[in-house]
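One-letter codes give the sequence; the integers encode the fold. A sample entry reads:
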Amino acid sequence: MRAARRKRGLAVDVLGLIIGAVVLPASAHDNAAGTALLDQAAEQGGMRLEKALVDQGFKEEVIIPAVLMGIDVEFVRSNPADQGKGFVPQPNRWVVEEVR
């Protein structure tokens, strides 16, 4: 039996605590995950959620609902000096990946 491929996404606060999680088919676009995570984060954070840091893969399908909810979306761009080095955690955005 072959396992189905899945795409997983997490929304975390500045401490790395999970405030949203989504599991979608691997064929789903990143924007579908982003929109679902944004909805969950807004529900959990209420009026305290002011800013979301996202990578360059997210498009208007995520930004427009965020703006309508009063959430500022900031794209975290990778450092050009890190090109070709493999996975390099980006400041502030990869707090969920940190080992504490």
